Amino acid sequence: MEHAQPQDTFTPHFEGKNFTAEQIKNLPFDDGIRMGDIVVVRGVPLNEIKVGDVIVYKFPGREPIIHRVVEITEDGLITKGDNNRNIDQVNEGIAAPIKAENLKGKAVLHIPLLGYVKIIYLKIIGRG
């Protein structure tokens, strides 16, 4: 969810959904999440998720994905990585709409760089 070119990938999507510049600036994790950041995720029911929230979801046999909710439909949550041009479900084919059984939680806090401790440790012991 790093914002390499937010004016190209992140901001236009929400402007197209009638978000104001101030609302976009106030979205959770508006400055992105980078490699080495620690993210704290809290389990929440699907009905508590709002457009703009950052969630973790997982489908069987696949790695967890952390992306932002950009739309809520009858079929489930529609998500998009902030640095991706397209949404996951339609254009990227990454996932089907997110249902309750796929939702692992909502990102509530991120601590920049703290994750590098683990990354360095794993490299030292030959597992990274």
From TrEMBL:
<dbReference type="GO" id="GO:0004252">
    <property type="term" value="F:serine-type endopeptidase activity"/>
</dbReference>
<keyword id="KW-0812">Transmembrane</keyword>
<dbReference type="InterPro" id="IPR019533">
    <property type="entry name" value="Peptidase_S26"/>
</dbReference>
<dbReference type="GO" id="GO:0009003">
    <property type="term" value="F:signal peptidase activity"/>
</dbReference>
<dbReference type="GO" id="GO:0016020">
    <property type="term" value="C:membrane"/>
</dbReference>
<keyword id="KW-0472">Membrane</keyword>
<dbReference type="GO" id="GO:0006465">
    <property type="term" value="P:signal peptide processing"/>
</dbReference>
<dbReference type="InterPro" id="IPR001733">
    <property type="entry name" value="Peptidase_S26B"/>
</dbReference>
<keyword id="KW-1133">Transmembrane helix</keyword>
<keyword id="KW-0378">Hydrolase</keyword>
<protein>
    <submittedName>
        <fullName>Signal peptidase I</fullName>
        <ecNumber>3.4.21.89</ecNumber>
    </submittedName>
</protein>
<dbReference type="InterPro" id="IPR036286">
    <property type="entry name" value="LexA/Signal_pep-like_sf"/>
</dbReference>
